[in-house]
Amino acid sequence: MTPHKTKTADSGMEHFGYRESLDRSIGKFGSFAAGVSYISILTGTFQLFYFGFGTAGPAYLWSWPMVLVGQLAVALCFMELAAKYPVAGSVYNWSKQTGGPVLAWSAGWLMLTASIVSLSAVVLALQLNLPRLWSGFQVVGDGSGPYDFAANAVILGAALILFTTVVNALGVRLMAMINSAGVFIELIAACLIAIILALNTRRGPEVFFSTNGYGAGTSGGFLGAFLIASLASGYVMYGFDTASSLGEETVDPRRTAPMAILRAILASFVIGGAILVFAVLSAPDLADPQIASSSGSLQYIVEKVMWGPLSKVFLVCIVVAVTVCSLAVHTAAIRLAFAMARDNALPFAARLARVNAATQTPILPAVVIGVIATLILVLNIEQPKIFTVVTSIAVIMIYLAYLMVTGTLLVRRLRGRWPPADLGTGGYFTMGRWGLPVNIAAVLWGLGMALNLAWPREAVYGLPWYNTWGAYVYIGVILGAGLAWYGLRGRHHVGTLSSHAVVPVEPAGKGAP
């Protein structure tokens, strides 16, 4: 059997009307690593711990299992879809199959723009770690100037985006190799951090069962503070669909991708939760203001608890985690842009959908996304609050895109049109009779979390009013502008580009008359 036939048998791409054009070389661990690196235990928990802890104290950690339960319901729905539709740009193609072209384009557009902004946000985490390793990484001033911290973060972030652009342009094999190695280091380091913190505990678990005075005298009391603090967990546990977004480059994707999604979210929950819990139990002084500071956070606890140069070693591992997280976010955005462009659903679609013959990867989307993400970084120099608002809203857009998938899937279930008859055959994942209740839970969770994320809070989004109401203002502008293009121009041209469409094969013995 020829390699081409093997790839076609693996994917069934002809059933979706597409030629197979990407390099199918990602194995089980590579697929799992894609999801884990996007969630990135060491990036998200270390970057956002200060916010959750500073808002609601140790008890904010109850939001970690809460978010898991909700996102696990979403992940189970995605696993069924990944088993049926192992196609690039997962959220876009899933919503196209379950909800129609307009909703699919809206979900894809929200997810694409949010992913580009997320890339800008993730690379900023280098500033929290590299100058701690060596003062020479603070190339702008000495860190004491009003814009030293922000400007230096932009320089370090731009350098990382350049790296992820080059790696993605060189092909998925290199990307998967770097990503898998980075995730392996991240998982080992995360486990060791959790163990060492556990061996240095100073207090018991009762600290998690008290409000510790947080929320007193504020609107909503501790519940209000907890809902705000829960954003720190909600901002971390997403992106597991990346494993399926690389479905066209994964071997046996209908079996591999669903299990990769499940393993990614469970591994992230267990290891990340252990770090968070034992960090609180081992912190020398929970009243230390550095713990609730963006310049201190979880890194500060690790530095205080670890002995000798060990804390530096783990900071290096966090830098590795930030790097592979940025790589995964960039890769997922590229595959989404490619999937939409292949359907002629983006401006300059033919160029964006072009696959390089040597690397078997779309190079132009890698470059365009890298350039836009770098330009967005500039906002952080003199307008850090606006950048914070924009990046927070990007997470909301991702939750909304997820909701568009789970919502339309639920409609199909209620109409008796899901699961498809062939989904339960061949050992592919299906929820069976649990599908409906889990799908309902996923939709309710998505609605609740989107509302909590978008709630106009000055404590989160600040002033003026257009920042406080930023979820509605900015998302309205982004979605409105996108739909305007789609309505006026895009919808008249949407359809698989001829360069990617399956060429009908003439049956043997039936030539032209």
Q: How is the main sheet built? A: none
Total discrete domains: 1
The DSSP helix count reads: 23
The fraction of residues assigned to DSSP E strands is under 5%
| The CATH class | Mainly Alpha
Low-pLDDT stretches: 1-10, 505-513
CA gyration radius, whole angstroms: 23 Å
Please identify, by name, the CATH architecture. Up-down Bundle
End-to-end C-alpha gap: 32 Å
- The best one-word shape is globular
TL;DR of this structure?
By secondary structure, this protein is an all-alpha fold.
Short key terms for the protein model shown above:
single chain; 513 residues; mainly alpha; Amino acid/polyamine transporter I; 23 helices; 65% helix; disordered N terminus; disordered C terminus
Can you characterise this structure?
The chain is globular, with a radius of gyration of 23 Å. α5 (90-99) runs parallel beside α19 (384-414), α6 (101-123) packs across α17 (363-377) and α8 (148-170) crosses α15. The protein is mainly α and 513 residues long. 65% of the residues lie in helices and 0% in strands.
